[in-house]
Amino acid sequence: MLDQHSPHGNGEIFPAHDSSDLLALAANLAATHREHEKHYGVAGLRTAQRLLEHSLTLKALAERWRSASATASTQRNPFAGADDLNDVRAIETSGVLFLESGERPPELTALRADLLHVAAEAASTGDYLGHAMESAWETAAGLLAVPALDDLLAERHAIIARDAHAATLLTWQARRLQRAVEILDRVDFRAEALRTDLAGPRRAPALLFAATELIDAAAEACVEAAGLVRRNERPWRRFHDLVERVRRA
Question: Left (φ > 0), alpha (ψ -120 to 50) or beta: where does 95 sit?
């Protein structure tokens, strides 16, 4: 998987004019992008963990609100915790604490912003990577001009296909997170509004559960994309070694 800011991409944008140029470019890509993909094979797992932590926070609140009864506060201090709205798991995992002052907890605002940040990165990288792999697929046909590379042609094309698949996963990861935020925006997280919901339609828990399922699916896409990228390490290494042997011959 490649950073959208990579100057060359993995799209082999600069076609070689002869076999020596082609081999030099192939060696460069195999060396640099193998290392680049090592990073993204791990980065996706870190992102998935972040998303799952957000999901657990929202699930804890949804589970609490599914059965909690709205109660009028007897606390005069605005910094007192709202006993009917708080869930200790959400406080422990993300610091989400509802106060009797009634405002939306700032941690939920930060959670929403992080979901949109991850979505924007995934959408941008997925779009870039998808276009780069279209170019890479076309340019890889030039390898047919070097018979000595025939044995690993399939591996080189498999790398491109896996990266293209990862690009699609990133695109849908972004869309799921964007929709999850749209769902969360239907919930009024002020204490008064939540208590009204708990005493009436109790829609907030269902909305939160729906958002978490989309977030979980996005996290799974992160893990799958990272796995595809990690599978490229051995093919990249074998292809690089073969290219270098051909160049020295």
Answer: left
Q: What is the pTM of this model?
A: 0.87
Name the residue ranges covered by the structural domains of the chain.
Answer: 19-67+104-248
Whether the CB-CB separation of 116 and 181 falls below 8 Å is answered with: yes
Sign of CA dihedral 141, 138, 172, 109: positive
Q: How far is CA 51 from CA 18, 55, 134, 222, 229, in A?
A: 47, 6, 29, 9, 20
Which pLDDT score is estimated for 221? 97
> 241 and 28 in contact (C-beta within 8 Å)?
no
Cβ-in-10-Å burial (0-12, 13-18, 19+) of 187 comes to: buried
Q: Looking at residue 111, what is its pLDDT?
A: 98
Mean pLDDT for each consecutive 10-residue tract of the chain (249 residues)? 38 52 86 84 95 98 94 80 95 95 96 98 95 92 92 95 97 98 98 95 97 98 96 92 90
CB 204 within 8 A of CB 187: yes
The pair of three-digit structure tokens given for residue 131, joined into one six-digit string: 């276009």
Cα maximum dimension of the chain: 85
